[in-house]
Design goal:
- The complex is a heterodimer of chains A (107) and B (122).
- Chain A is mostly beta strands and 107 residues long.
- Chain A has no helices and 11 strands.
- Chain A has strands spanning 4-7, 10-13, 19-25, 33-38, 45-49, 53-54, 62-67, 70-75, 85-90, 97-98, 102-106.
- In chain A, a hairpin with a 6-residue loop joins strand 4 and strand 5 (45-49).
- Chain A is globular and about 35 Å long.
- Chain B is mostly beta strands.
- Chain B contains no helices and 11 strands.
- In chain B, a hairpin with a 4-residue loop joins strand 7 (68-73) and strand 8 (78-83).
- The radius of gyration of chain B is 13 Å and the shape is globular.
- Classes of the chains: A mainly beta (107), B mainly beta (122).
- Chain A binds chain B through residues 32, 34, 36, 42-46, 49, 55, 87, 89, 91-101, and chain B through 43-47, 59, 61, 95, 97, 100, 105-110, 112-115.
């Protein structure tokens, strides 16, 4: 199965700044990469699919890029509600697999 | 409103059993692959099981194969996960989650339940 590796494990960012999160696949997943946001005590929420398409209702400050094995989630001008854990997931190969998550915390 | 509501979690001794349920509403339940995804304390997400719309094909992660059984009743819009021979490393929040598109074997998860907690401990 494809192993997804996220970095860093924790990212400390000040409100209003930009956060850049990385996700690497052990083999190519084309553009079939999704990002989820998970706040404490809540279920994950789909943010990005197809590596760069925002899901319904997701603000434009969230953007995704990449293809193949290297992917990036960028959050511009971080808001208080953006401090959370972010998970990547590949769905190009069966079975679907997730990264271990990146926690974005307030600096 | 599209909604998934899990129940059935709790504290169980090693070797014991639990049955999780997921009640779905707001979409055509029978058209979608439904899944159970778990999150152990401080860990990432793991899809442990999935079942196609008709119920005719299922998926299990190696970590649960032979111990867990997924099933569904489309007339009741309900998904289940029967968990037997539970171990300490099965301790996790279990989420019911829907694949985004119909007829998918691999996909994103667009709708999640709130989760139900399973604790395996003596």
């Amino acid at each position: 199965e494809i192993v997804m590796t996220q970095s860093p494990a924790t990212l400390s960012v000040s409100p209003g700044e930009r956060a850049i999160l990385s996700c690497r696949a052990s083999q190519s997943v084309s553009s079939k990469l999704a990002w989820y946001q998970q706040k404490p005590g809540q279920a994950p929420r789909l943010l990005i699919y197809g590596a760069s398409t925002r899901a319904t209702g997701i603000p434009a400050r969230f953007s995704g890029s990449g293809s193949g094995t290297e992917f990036t989630l960028t959050i511009n001008s971080l808001q208080s509600e953006d401090f959370a854990v972010y998970h990547c997931q590949q769905y190009n190969n069966w079975p679907v697999t997730f990264g271990q998550g990146t926690k974005v915390e307030i600096k | 409103e599209v909604q998934l509501l899990e129940s059935g979690g709790g504290l169980v001794q090693p070797g014991g059993s639990l049955r999780l349920s997921c009640a779905a509403s707001g979409f055509t339940f029978s058209s979608y692959v439904m899944n159970w995804v778990r999150q152990a304390p401080g860990k990432g997400l793991e899809r442990v099981s999935g079942i196609i719309g008709s119920g005719g094909s299922t998926y299990y992660a190696d970590s649960v194969k032979g111990r867990f059984t997924i099933s569904r009743d489309n007339s009741k819009n309900t998904l289940w996960l029967q968990m037997n021979s539970l171990r300490a490393d099965d301790t996790a929040i279990y989420y019911c989650a829907k694949f985004s598109a119909t007829e998918s074997t691999t996909d994103t998860f667009d709708i999640w339940g709130q989760g139900t907690t399973v604790t395996v401990s003596s």
